[in-house]
Q: What sequence folds into this?
């Protein structure tokens, strides 16, 4: 588990113009005076951009967003506290408990295990496709689910 210092913020930015998009791409490309971690790159106007901001940079970064009239919202004030809260919630999967929960965040390793279990259980319906790697060089799998058709054909002789 990654432990963040307290008060790292998650800020969601809504780029509504090409100018805003250019500014966010400048920050994303490493020309940022702030300690930022983009959860996804800025791609186009209208696509949300989630950014983790270091506590020391958050106040000035927010002022910068406001001065540029960017639409944003602070989604999480303290990421570490939110993660700890998620882990202590009743729906959180604990390794000692049996099963996989679709009602909570799961690690990529657990997701892959669940996909493999499903494929083993229903090989006629589920195939797994390797779609490449994440930016962290981790294998990404997706499940292709086919409808399992049980044809109950009666021959003409049975009519």
A:
């Amino acid at each position: 588990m990654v432990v963040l210092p307290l008060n790292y913020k998650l800020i969601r930015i809504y780029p509504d113009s090409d100018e805003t998009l250019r500014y966010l791409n400048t920050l994303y490309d490493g020309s940022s005076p702030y300690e930022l971690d983009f959860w996804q790159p800025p791609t186009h106007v209208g696509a949300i951009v989630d950014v983790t901001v270091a506590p020391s940079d958050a106040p000035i970064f927010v002022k910068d967003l406001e001065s540029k009239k960017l639409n944003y919202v602070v989604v999480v004030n303290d990421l570490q506290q939110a993660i700890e809260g998620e882990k202590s919630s009743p729906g959180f999967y604990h390794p000692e408990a049996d099963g996989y929960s679709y009602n909570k965040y799961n690690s990529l390793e657990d997701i892959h295990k669940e996909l493999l279990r499903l494929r083993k259980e229903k090989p006629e319906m589920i195939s797994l496709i390797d779609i490449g790697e994440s930016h962290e060089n981790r294998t990404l799998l997706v499940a292709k689910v086919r409808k399992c058709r049980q044809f109950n054909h009666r021959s003409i002789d049975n009519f």
